[in-house]
């Protein structure tokens, strides 16, 4: 397993050791002992899978309170996956990191609690998987506008397909402090 640090402290790209031959391939997508040795989470409580068509953009989502850390990967297709640091007081507040995740590169992206998360589908379709450190809590569900100019995510698509929730999410500057995580808390 190879870890690639990003400019957002705590958010890391994980390249698993892949073993393959003419029959196919094998890799460990999660191993508590190995993850723990690298300071990554060793407990997940919810697993989600979604399927989306080309151009679908989901995000930027987070929960507060009851934040979720997410270990994300793509089982089929390709996406641009994005994490945004929304922790009040963080030196990287409002900054983003984007990673290409695909069935071909088998990369995973660890997005710690306190970050907003989203992705856009680049292939004809994608099957997306994520392990979460807390369960979904409707009352804690929140989002940041996908095209917030203060954040400036370069999604690489001009007219993504969005849910009503994502279309009308607030700008980061318009979210009250009590609805944002705190750095170091």
UniProtKB/TrEMBL annotation:
Keyword Isomerase in the entry? The reply is: yes
Annotated catalytic residues: 61 (proton acceptor), 130 (proton donor)
Q: Where is this site: Participates in a stacking interaction with the thymidine ring of dTDP-4-oxo-6-deoxyglucose?
A: 136
Q: What does this protein do?
A: Catalyzes the epimerization of the C3' and C5'positions of dTDP-6-deoxy-D-xylo-4-hexulose, forming dTDP-6-deoxy-L-lyxo-4-hexulose.
- Protein name per Swiss-Prot or TrEMBL: dTDP-4-dehydrorhamnose 3,5-epimerase
Task: Give the matching PANTHER family.
Answer: DTDP-6-DEOXY-D-GLUCOSE-3,5 EPIMERASE (PTHR21047), THYMIDINE DIPHOSPHO-4-KETO-RHAMNOSE 3,5-EPIMERASE (PTHR21047:SF2)
Key word Isomerase present in the record? yes
What does the subunit comment say? Homodimer.
NCBIfam families on file: rmlC
The alphabetical list of record keywords is: Isomerase
Q: Which reaction does it catalyse?
A: dTDP-4-dehydro-6-deoxy-alpha-D-glucose = dTDP-4-dehydro-beta-L-rhamnose
Its annotated pathway reads: Carbohydrate biosynthesis; dTDP-L-rhamnose biosynthesis
* Any GO CC annotation of this UniProt entry: cytosol
Q: Which enzyme type, at the first EC level?
A: isomerase
- EC number(s) reported in the record: 5.1.3.13
Which GO molecular-function terms appear in the entry?
dTDP-4-dehydrorhamnose 3,5-epimerase activity
């Amino acid at each position: 397993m190879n870890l690639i640090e990003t400019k957002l402290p705590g958010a890391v790209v994980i390249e698993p050791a892949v073993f393959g031959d003419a029959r196919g391939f094998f890799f460990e997508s999660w191993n508590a002992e190995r993850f723990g040795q690298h300071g990554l989470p060793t407990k997940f409580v919810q697993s989600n899978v979604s399927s989306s068509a080309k151009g679908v953009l989901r995000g930027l989502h987070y929960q507060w309170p009851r934040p979720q850390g997410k270990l994300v990967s793509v089982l089929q297709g390709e996406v641009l996956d994005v994490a945004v640091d929304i922790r009040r007081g963080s030196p990287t507040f409002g900054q983003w990191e984007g990673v290409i995740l695909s069935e071909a590169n088998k990369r995973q992206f660890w997005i710690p609690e306190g970050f907003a998360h989203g992705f856009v589908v680049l292939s004809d379709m994608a099957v997306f998987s994520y392990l979460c450190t807390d369960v979904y809590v409707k009352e804690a569900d929140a989002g940041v506008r996908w095209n917030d100019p203060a954040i400036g995510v370069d999604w690489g698509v001009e007219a993504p397909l969005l849910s009503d929730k994502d279309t009308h999410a607030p700008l980061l500057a318009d979210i009250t402090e009590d609805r944002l995580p705190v750095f170091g808390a």
